[in-house]
Amino acid sequence: MLGGAPGRSGYAGLLSTPSPSAPPDPLPGRSTTDVLVVGGGPIGLAIAWRARARGLTVTLCERGGLPSYLSAAHVAAGMLAPVAEADPQELALLGLGLDSAARWAAFAGELGEASGLEVGYRDCGTLVVARDRDEAEHVDREIRLREQLGVPVARLLPSAARRLEPALAPAIRAAFHAPDDHAVDPRTVCEALLIACELAGVHLRPGCEVAAVDGDGVRLASGEHVPAGQVVIAAGAWAPRIEGLPCLPVRPVKGQVLRLAARAGEGHLLEHVVRWDGGYLVPRGDGRVILGATMEDRGYDTTVTALGVYELLRDAGELVPGVLELDLEAAVAGLRPATPDNAPLLGAWEGVTLACGHHRNGILLTPVTADRITALLLGEDAGIDPAFAPGRFARQPA
Ligand SMILES: Cc1cc2nc3c(=O)[nH]c(=O)nc-3n(C[C@H](O)[C@H](O)[C@H](O)COP(=O)(O)OP(=O)(O)OC[C@H]3O[C@@H](n4cnc5c(N)ncnc54)[C@H](O)[C@@H]3O)c2cc1C
Hints:
CATH class of the largest domain: Alpha Beta
Radius of gyration: 21 Å
Order of helices and strands: HEHEEHEHEHEEHEEEEEEEEHEEEH
Number of strands: 18
Bound molecules: flavin-adenine dinucleotide
CATH topology of the largest domain: FAD/NAD(P)-binding domain
Largest sheet: 8 strands, mixed
Distance between the termini: 47 Å
Number of helices: 8
């Protein structure tokens, strides 16, 4: 654990054990790091790990501790769900999501080997269900849309959905199954990335808030200047607060979630991710279930509210009544880094490299973002779709 955040068993031990294959200090006798990454969420950590693996010297500054309890990933459910989230207005994002989803199994395996942590990747598929006639019609439209887009889904009779997931209420009216939408545990992913970065020789600096980007690096809130060859902004919802950048079209969208757990000796409630209009249940391998999530424009507020908790439990209890028998471990809220078109800002702009604005899909998009941004840092053809160009909003007429 770095920077005073409470760690999980095994984590601190792994970090304090020198790896026989760990490279030497990445910055021996050098005053300038090749790459300075701002932000220790999943995007910043994955870029740092990949860039270091490609031979770059990397420093990562995180204003909180590491792992970061400020990161949206600390709250995220961990759905890898490009199919369930598909929107005909967001085809480029769908393509990026499918690309990243296809990378996830290998990414999880590689990360597991590098860190010694199992990151909770589950190829469980997603069930999308409807409670009433209106929702059933909506589910019907969603199935037809996915068929037109050529992404695999299977329409299910309510009885078939209940055979697949016996915890579903008899009252459900319609359902479809997205077999390729999976899930992962974001907290463990960040812990594993942190270990992998440490062992690879990334210079990790928890408790370092970057106040501004300047000509040849960054200025920390402490006043220290850190020189860097290239700067990557992976500061999530807080990216617009960094001085010296163009006006970034990123805003925080608050999400409240409940972390639920079965009592010892009781079986797992769910095997699949279950989604409905306005919510979802995501099972973890240890029997825990994440119930989410609200979508609220409330600035940087992360208060958990009685209304948020009530609405989540009311809806989930209607669809999966067994949820109400679980223990409530925690109610937490985090900030999704949203953009006007829900797609991330990826690429070089005004002297920095941006990797932010991943909104509801930052966990899904971690592998593809890390690979493409690393290619960009190395001067390779990163193949980033212009739909994600950071300056795309600036070019639009007012
Ligand atoms: C309720 C909820 C549910 C979600 N569910 C899913 C899901 O199921 N699937 C999915 O794919 N995504 C999900 N997400 C979205 C996902 O969590 C985010 O898209 C993802 O965490 C973004 O990663 P990031 O690294 O860009 O930003 P973050 O994870 O927010 O990390 C940014 C980091 O930068 C640090 N930082 C900020 N400013 C500075 C600075 N000036 N100097 C130094 N450090 C700084 C912050 O402290 C933070 O640690 C969910 C999010 C929420 C809130």
